[in-house]
Specification:
By secondary structure, this protein is of the alpha+beta class. The protein has ten helices and 13 strands.
């Protein structure tokens, strides 16, 4: 079973049949019979529901197969329908039910919540103290050296701060009958047992999560504290260009003691890049860029002093950056003829 959807019954006639009905019930749209529903007892607290298409004469036929379509939980007076059946009961002029939560989602969320409660954001609540698997150790080493930095940068640009909490990743991709019936019988006991089993089976992977989380928090905090890092300027440029709605902008760069203003596509200035691609510069401006800085030259965020869109300045380099460039320009340099 892929999934069941918890439903709320909207019509009294349907509710009475679920509570008391013993004979099949036929659902109609106007005069036309759409489907016939019947229920069979699974156990004292639950009935299984089956449906079959109604024949032309508004009755059942031995040519129509019977298909499982849901569960009626007597004890909790709750209806669960299969995803492919739901539309038959929700699209009528006066719907028979309203759809609620997916049971794979509900059970998964409750198990994760319980796992997180038991772990309580403390790796000391795990039974293991170190990562031992060679593959896990290799992955952890890579993440600490490279992955954490990459994720910190991604989060800087997305504005998604690390929350610093442990998160369980338990997931039901389908809904086995035994799992659903066990959950119906004793929801709290089922969640507790499943959470404990999940923790027992994933001790080392949970420890990996803690260690990687710590590495990410360290890298993210270092990046946020390093306000002179060009990545912050790159993010400011990205936000300025995106918020302007421009497709083409004018960029002024200060590079190698020269200043140049050129037109380029707005998209070429967004996101995290080691450098900006000159291929997007307008052809005539690109020739001047290559004449000043070399055919294979590029430009970087820290070399951009201004970006304009139309008559509006949408980005201007921070004062510290501008002052540094002015000092660089005024510093004496040694040449073959002496001091200049």
């Amino acid at each position: 079973m892929k999934d069941l959807i918890r439903c709320t019954v909207s019509r009294d006639d349907f509710q009475r049949w679920l509570d008391l009905g013993t004979a099949p019930i036929t659902f109609r749209q106007g005069e036309k019979a759409i489907t016939t529903l019947l229920k069979l007892e699974k156990n004292p607290s639950a009935d299984y529901l089956y449906r079959t298409a109604a024949a032309q004469e508004n009755s059942i036929s031995w040519n129509n197969p019977v298909q499982f379509c849901g569960v009626w939980d007597h004890k909790n007076r709750t209806l669960y329908l299969t995803e492919d059946t739901l539309g038959l009961f929700t699209t009528a002029k006066y719907p028979f039910v309203s759809a609620g939560s997916s049971m794979t989602d509900e059970i998964s969320d409750r198990v994760n919540s319980r796992v997180e409660s038991i772990i309580a954001d403390d790796q000391n609540n795990l039974a293991v103290r170190e990562v031992t698997g060679w593959r896990a150790l290799k992955d952890l080493d890579y993440y600490r050296n490279y992955g954490a930095k990459e994720e910190a940068i991604r989060r800087l640009f997305s504005g998604e701060e690390p929350d610093g909490h442990f998160h369980s990743q338990y997931r039901l991709d389908s809904l086995p009958e035994t799992v659903f019936l066990a959950y119906l019988e004793d929801p709290e006991g089922f969640i507790e047992k499943t959470a404990e089993q999940h923790i027992e089976q994933h001790q080392e992977s949970f420890l990996m999560d803690f260690l990687e989380r710590d590495a990410l928090l360290t890298e993210y905090q270092l990046l946020m504290q390093d306000t002179e890092n060009p990545l912050h300027r790159m993010k400011a440029i990205t936000e300025a260009v995106k918020s302007s709605g421009a497709k083409t902008v004018s960029v002024t760069v200060h590079k190698s003691g020269e200043e140049l203003t050129f037109r380029t596509t707005a998209g070429s200035l967004t996101g995290h890049r080691n450098y900006y691609n000159t291929n997007q510069i307008a052809a005539s401006d690109r020739r001047e860029f290559e004449r000043l800085f070399g055919r294979h030259a590029d430009y970087k965020a820290e070399e951009i002093t201004r970006i304009t869109y139309g008559r509006n300045t949408i980005y201007e380099a921070p004062p510290v950056q501008s002052e540094a460039m002015a000092e660089e320009e005024s510093e004496p340099t040694l040449t073959m003829g002496g001091m200049s």
